[in-house]
Amino acid sequence: MNYVKKFIYDLKKIVGDMGSEVYLVGGYIRDKLMNAKTEPRDADFIINGDIHKFVSELEKVGYKFFPIKENIGIYRCILNGNTIDISPMKGDSIEKDLEVRDFTVNAVAMRLIDNKIVDPFYGRRALKSRILKSVSDKSLEEDPVRILRGIRFYIKCGMHFNLETEKQIENISGRIMEVPKERVFKELMLIIKDDKLGLAFEIMDNYGILKNIIPYIDELKTIGKCKYHTEDVFTHMNLTYGVFKDILRGKIKLKGLNLNIFDHKIGEFSLQEYLSLACFLHDIGKYEAYKNENNKISFYGHDIMGASICERFCNDMKFPKKAEKYIENIVRGHMYPLGLFKKDIFHNKKAVYSFFYNYDVYVEGILTTAFCDNYATRMNLNRQNEKQRFKVFIEYMLKEYETYCKMNEDKLLNGEDIIKILGRKGPVVKSALRDIHMLRYLGKISNRVEAIEYLKSQSF
């Protein structure tokens, strides 16, 4: 069932009975004008009349609304994942309402009673030309976060700003962080979500926006070239982000990587978006870690410094705490797999186990980021053999982690067993469980009897 169409049908009947004007506006109209076959999941309605009476009438036919901005009369209804918003008209006409919107492509309305299109700012012409033009000189100035919304349309719909709007962006991009950080966070993550080709950070940087959101952007462009990299750090971060986007769309494949794990949501966004951001931020600590001693460049500790920067950034931007911790751990651990690779740990499963144990639920994200990092590096150095060897290594690690997880789920002994055998409680139980899990992973214990014999032979 198309829930939005059903709602429009029911709303038309109520409009006819009440005699008030109702307009369908915003993204629904824009997307339909761009592609008539598309089925938008969300719809916004403007009502010139008693909005409380409209809500009451809609609830009589089964729709449940709740206020999202009750002081100005904005109500929302969720229909099987579809979002319906209704708002009172701003000003004394639909034209007055549309003139306070962001871009002309979003300032098009359709009168519901007769399907008449209202387009005072030539939004349809802009859509046809794929042009993003601010409705007025004040559109972006009054709400700088609209710049990020424009960037999202740029990426998602293949649009471009006109020259006048570009100048407005240039003039006010420095004010982007004056709005509530939660709004900047949401728009940034929506950009990343809609960015299928890995161009988001480059585009935001081109318009001078990124440096006002993420720290050290300009500084990272001045360092990075060394025996491991032919490009500056900012370029490398962009490339790494792009590699992960290529993985998500199937252009690059990693055997053993289940992409479905990145569908897990933290708040409104999934691990796909958070890991995308982590891939970009992975080397953000290099500016603070940079050293040049006797023409020998190093970035020792940039992973730890980067994790600290990410923690501050995510906290300042009001990320969900779990998302903040996820990004922080990915950035902190992104060098760990390379260290294991250089030590040739194919014959040292204890080192592999330590990595899995220390990073646990972040392992797959870290392994993926490490691969993207290495792949981006070798894109320019063109050491094909090492790139392929590292890919084989990461795929080996993904398979080993799967084994590790299966053993962790199917334990030989549980906590109660340990307490009965040792006659003790407390931290010793956790330590014993870890020892048994590790020895089983290393192949030194294979069944419950051997696990019990091991415990009885130890002095915990």
From TrEMBL:
- What are the recorded Gene Ontology BP terms? tRNA processing
Keyword set includes Metal-binding? yes
Name one molecular function that GO assigns to this entry.
metal ion binding
Cofactor or coenzyme needed: Mg(2+)
Gene3D superfamilies the UniProt entry points to: Beta Polymerase, domain 2 (3.30.460.10), cca-adding enzyme, domain 2 (1.10.3090.10)
Q: What is this protein called?
A: Multifunctional CCA protein
**Record's NCBIfam families?**
HDIG
**Keyword annotations for this protein?**
Magnesium, Metal-binding, Nucleotide-binding, Nucleotidyltransferase, RNA-binding, Transferase, tRNA processing
- Start and end residues of each tRNA nucleotidyltransferase/poly(A) polymerase RNA and SrmB- binding domain: 158-219
Q: Which InterPro entries match?
A: HD_domain, HDIG_dom, NT_sf, PolA_pol_head_dom, PolyA_RNA-bd, tRNA_CCA-adding_enzyme
Q: Which residues are in the Poly A polymerase head domain?
A: 22-132
Family assignment from sequence similarity: Belongs to the tRNA nucleotidyltransferase/poly(A) polymerase family.
Q: Which domain of life is it from?
A: Bacteria
Residue intervals of the HD domain: 273-337
